[in-house]
Design brief:
The protein has two helices and eight strands, in the order αβββαβββββ. It is mainly beta. It has an eight-stranded antiparallel barrel. About 10% of the residues lie in helices and about 50% in strands. The model has no long low-confidence stretch (mean pLDDT about 95).
């Protein structure tokens, strides 16, 4: 696969998640934080606005139509099976920068989420790499397919 440098016009539009895989340099097995069949959408507006949502494919329903009246355990399960934020996006120095304005996780608000990019027309992988407490490299890879 050839890794091209995308332009903002290449990225603008809607994307569907293929998978979110986490790999480790210490030979641990890969993990899938929202399951191997996770669902997700990433939207990049030409105006510079963005939104991303990812969830487990088989999220259980809440027992009450009003989530505020649901048991705490069900609220925790709903939080644990969903991920999302919105804000602005920009390409900077060959990387994607999401500047988060709203998020299910309040700790993301006000942060810049910087991701490496692997791109071919119609396919985008965003990559975040960090080091674990044990010194292993952890690589989050979200693979997307363009749908618009």
């Amino acid at each position: 696969m050839t890794n091209a440098q995308p332009t903002p016009a290449d990225l603008a539009g809607a994307w569907r998640l293929d998978n979110w895989r986490i790999s480790f340099s210490d030979d641990r097995p890969d993990t899938y934080p929202y399951g191997e069949d996770a669902k997700g959408y990433l939207i990049y507006e030409p105006s510079g606005r963005m939104a991303v949502m990812v969830s487990n494919n088989d999220r259980p329903a809440i027992s009450d139509a009003n989530i505020r009246r649901a048991p705490v355990e069900e609220k925790v399960a709903a939080f644990d099976t969903f991920f999302g934020y919105c804000g602005t996006w920009a390409l900077k120095d060959g990387q994607m920068v999401h500047s988060v304005e709203m998020s299910l996780n309040p700790n993301f608000v006000g942060t810049d989420q910087v991701r490496g990019i692997e791109y071919t027309p119609g396919a985008l992988t965003l990559i975040e790499q960090s080091t674990t407490r044990t010194g292993a490299v952890m690589r989050n890879q979200l693979a997307w397919r363009k749908i618009s």
